[in-house]
Design brief:
Layout: E1 3-7, H1 11-21, E2 26-30, H2 33-42, E3 47-51, H3 59-69, E4 75-79, H4 85-92, E5 97-100, H5 105-135, H6 146-160, E6 165-168, H7 175-184, E7 193-197, H8 203-211, E8 212-213, E9 225-226, H9 228-232, E10 236-240, H10 247-259, E11 261-262, E12 271-272, E13 276-281, H11 285-290, H12 296-302, E14 305-308, H13 318-329, E15 340-341, H14 343-351, H15 357-372, E16 377-378, H16 385-391, H17 403-421, H18 426-432, H19 437-447
Parallel strand pairs: 1-2, 1-3, 3-4, 4-5, 6-13, 6-14, 7-10, 10-13, 15-16
Antiparallel strand pairs: 8-9, 11-12
Helix pairs in contact: 5-13, 6-7, 13-15, 17-18, 18-19
Bound molecules: adenosine-5'-triphosphate (ATP) and magnesium ion.
Residues 175-176, 240 line the site of magnesium ion (MG).
């Protein structure tokens, strides 16, 4: 049972609050700040209802103490309603909400429920972080959706082997993060992790970048320079944006993957490499190989263990987890005190499509904190313009027909569009729509949408 603590010097208020909440919660009462602090030190409390005006230490001073000892405890201020100033001040100091005496019972119940919801979510984020951290020694990776946790589980399994891993996913889904996790969870964790950005270098420099060069290999080579393969040693070599690798470099990399050997530019000595390869791409490498834009022999070597990171919009429940994670992690200024999102703001965040995925979410949270972080709650109107549209409720619904028919017609359009976007591949269309392939099939049958040729995956 969730626990509520009421700190108020008036016995009448304490008892009436007990009467309101005793059915659903365990209610503890304290008549002053000191007694309240004692209870908080001894038991875990989910919500604190705190009187603003009390004879010894008043509610505001107590609230400030709590920021040091119980920063995540939601506090609902009880105000006698004579002056708004202390309430405004309390909200600035991070109170969750306030009620005025005499109470509106429904209102106070609703506020307490919301406060409890916010702690529950908060704790969930912490447990998830903890669980993931236990599996991976690198921290700061957050997620609870089935599709994302499955990708992480695959990554962990892959970490144990020496197999080459190909991490795929849209931009900003965390490919590099997962590549680093694979390294950190592997037996090579004490060896170097070296990244190569395949799109960043012109082909002429790529070879010496990868394999190094001997002294005198070309006019400017006044000394031997080790390449990325040298630097990685027996660690992990990460090829980012591998789809952008030029054909010449592709041939060279293929040779190294086959022989585990390379030569520096201008050198004759054969050097053995023990490095493990992890590659990442936002493009469909298989399709590129089929079109002849990427060597298929290299594709087969690289893609031994594929790990697909789902787009953020297909990770159910992860937006609130990640948004709160970034909110707590990012403190751009000394007066940053925002501790949560208002419910409407969170709804808008959840409804958004996130084309830039986790990176975009992180940037949006950071931007809101820079601009509005001095307020206790991030509110809907703080969100950038592109989010405001979602509030208008989307396109106007057509007229005529029953609710069922209208919704069905709309759903049919959505599914057909997702299927077209994903070339008829149902698993991908389902992912795009944030559902499973089984449910998608069921809906397609129900709405009379035919599977395209070869669309059965
Ligand atoms: N699950 C997660 N938990 C916490 N932070 C995450 C998570 N996924 C991604 N991030 C953060 O989001 C940002 C983007 O992640 P990353 O650079 O790994 O994406 P990417 O897929 O490599 O993107 P791109 O294709 O644009 O290179 C990073 O700051 C990363 O730390
Ligand atoms: Mg990246």
């Amino acid at each position: 049972m969730k626990r509520i603590l009421v700190v108020d010097d008036e016995i009448g208020t304490r008892e009436s609050l007990r009467a309101v909440f005793a059915r659903k919660y365990e209610v503890r009462l304290a008549e002053n700040a000191a007694a309240g602090m004692q209870i908080l030190g001894a038991t875990s409390v989910d919500v604190l209802l705190l009187d603003v005006l009390m004879p010894e230490k008043d509610g505001l001073a107590f609230l400030r103490d709590l920021r040091g000892t119980h920063p995540d405890l939601p506090v609902v201020m009880i105000s006698a309603g004579t002056s708004v100033r202390p309430v405004v001040e309390a909200m600035r100091d991070g109170a969750f909400d306030y009620v005025t005496k005499p109470f509106d019972v429904l209102e106070i119940e609703r506020i307490v429920e919301r406060a409890i919801e916010s702690t529950t979510l908060h704790r969930r984020v912490q447990t998830l972080e903890f669980e993931i951290e236990r599996e991976f020694p690198v921290s700061g990776i957050v997620g609870g959706s089935e599709s994302f946790l499955k990708a992480l589980a695959d990554a962990r399994k892959a970490a144990e082997s020496d197999a080459t891993v190909l991490v795929t996913g849209e931009s900003g889904t965390g490919k590099e993060l997962v590549a680093r996790l694979i390294h950190a969870a592997s037996p090579r964790r004490d060896e170097p992790f070296v990244a190569v950005h395949c799109a960043a270098l012109p082909e002429t420099l790529m070879e010496s970048e990868l394999f190094g060069h001997e002294k005198g290999a070309f006019t400017s080579a006044d000394r031997m320079k080790p390449g990325r393969f040298d630097l990685a040693g027996a660690g992990t070599l990460f090829f980012d944006e591998v789809s952008e690798m030029t054909p010449v470099t592709q041939v060279k990399l293929l040779r190294v993957l086959q022989e585990h050997e390379f030569m520096r530019v201008g050198g004759t000595r054969v050097i053995r490499t023990e490095a493990r390869i992890v590659a990442a791409t936002a493009k469909d490498l298989k399709q590129q190989a089929a079109r002849g834009e990427f060597r298929d022999d290299l594709y087969y070597r690289i893609g031994v263990v594929p790990i697909r990171l789902p787009p953020l919009r297909a990770r159910e429940g992860d937006v609130p987890l990640l948004a709160r994670h970034f909110l707590r992690q990012c403190r751009p200024g000394p007066d940053t005190r925002a501790r949560d999102f208002a419910p409407e703001a969170m709804e808008l965040l959840c409804a958004y499509r996130w084309p830039g995925n986790v990176r975009e979410l992180r940037n949006v949270v950071e931007r809101m904190l820079v601009l509005h972080g001095n307020e206790p709650l991030i509110r809907a109107e703080h969100l950038p313009e592109e989010f405001q549209g979602a509030r208008a409720g989307g396109p106007e619904p057509p007229e005529g027909g029953t609710l069922e028919e209208l919704v069905g017609a709309f759903e049919k359009r959505l599914i057909e569009k997702a299927l077209a976007d994903s070339g008829g591949v149902q698993t991908r269309a389902a992912e795009q729509l944030g559902t499973t392939r089984r449910i998608l099939r069921y809906r397609m049958d129900k709405l009379g949408i035919a599977a395209s040729n070869g669309g059965g995956d």
